[in-house]
Every structure is written in structure tokens, then in C-alpha cells.
Design goal:
Layout: H1 3-8, E1 11-14, E2 22-25, H2 27-30, H3 33-50, E3 54-58, H4 61-73, E4 77-80, E5 91-97, E6 100-106, E7 117-124, H5 128-139, E8 146-152, H6 158-164, E9 168-174
Parallel strand pairs: 3-4, 3-7, 7-8, 8-9
Antiparallel strand pairs: 1-2, 5-6
């Protein structure tokens, strides 16, 4: 499938989660077998070229794409979890959102020192979550130099923020506007 065909599978929902926001919903993309498979294949191509030794996915939608890419490439998958989901002592990071704060956690034994870990998530907007993911992985000892996304909302500047933090960014699809 072409990227234009994949783009057509992403549903736009106006005024969610707040008035004035046009939410890009990947549910329709992952619910389309050929579209989901094509998205995973394209991400896997790029992940393979990156030299990644492990794939990290951000809960929850990053698990969908990151887990599939890791399995396709035979690489370990590192889940970056919401608070309270891991049964061991964790490393954690709090980060700012447009509407408050949130937290990500990782099992500190999930990565090894210097391991090249690639972040995968469904969407990058302002970049706050992805920046926190990169910082958390680095605190755990990983080398993080690249992130892949299905969707980029370039007008919100998140990809630029990641690049400033030393993380190269690629996305399969871009949707201008908010």
C-alpha cells in the first residue's frame, strides 16, 4: 500500500479530546489488515536500517506498532509503561502534557548499557512523551538516537524538539494542522 492509501485509513475526529482539536485516530488503520501490515512493514524497514538492537514502545499505542516491529525483526521489545503497571522497582520520569503531567516507567533491567534502542509510537505531536521516553531509556543505560512514528503532526513541533535532543525522527505520514 502507498502512504497515501495508508493516510486515507486514518480517521479524523473533530473536537476530541477538546474543542478545536482534530484527533488523528489510528483505530481505523490498525483495523484494516492490509493497512496495518503495510505500516508495520514500512516501520520495520526503517528500524532495520537504523541498526537498532531493541525496540521500545510507549504505552499504549506504541505497544501495537513497536511490538509488531520487534517481532518482525526478531528484536527484544521494551515496554515503556504508565505508572503502577510493573511488578518491580522502576525508573520513572514525569513529563508535561498540554493539559497536565504524566509519568512513564521502565524496568531498569529491560535494557543493557549502551544498547541501541529505537523508540516507536503511533503519533508525535508536541514531543513531550517521546522526549520523556528517550530520557528514561538513556537513564536506564540505553543509547537512543532514533524514533519512528506512524503519524507526525509537524505544526506542533515535536519532531524538531526530538532532533534538538539528539534523536533523529522519521514518520510514515504527516498531517498538517492540529
Amino acid at each position: 500500500m502507498t502512504t497515501d492509501e495508508l493516510k486515507a485509513l486514518v480517521r479524523a475526529i473533530p473536537d476530541f479530546p477538546a474543542p478545536g482539536i482534530l484527533f488523528r485516530d489510528i483505530t481505523t488503520l490498525i483495523g484494516h489488515g492490509a493497512g496495518f501490515a503495510a505500516s508495520v512493514a514500512l516501520l520495520a524497514e526503517r528500524a532495520s536500517a537504523s541498526g537498532a538492537q531493541a525496540i521500545a514502545g510507549i504505552e499504549a499505542r506504541g505497544f501495537i506498532f513497536g511490538g509488531a516491529v520487534a517481532a518482525r525483526l526478531g528484536l527484544p521489545f521494551v515496554p515503556l509503561r504508565k505508572p503502577g503497571k510493573l511488578p518491580v522497582a522502576v525508573l520513572s520520569i514525569e513529563y508535561a502534557l498540554e493539559y497536565g503531567t504524566d509519568r512513564l516507567e521502565i524496568d531498569p533491567g529491560a535494557v543493557t548499557a549502551g544498547q541501541q534502542v529505537l523508540i516507536i509510537d503511533d503519533l508525535i505531536a508536541t514531543g513531550g512523551t517521546a522526549l520523556a521516553a528517550g530520557e528514561l531509556l538513556r537513564r536506564a543505560g540505553a543509547s537512543v538516537t532514533q524514533a519512528l512514528f506512524v503519524i507526525d503532526l509537524p505544526d506542533l513541533g515535536g519532531a524538531g524538539r526530538l532532533r534538538t535532543a539528539g534523536i533523529a525522527v522519521e514518520a510514515l505520514l504527516a498531517f498538517p494542522g492540529h
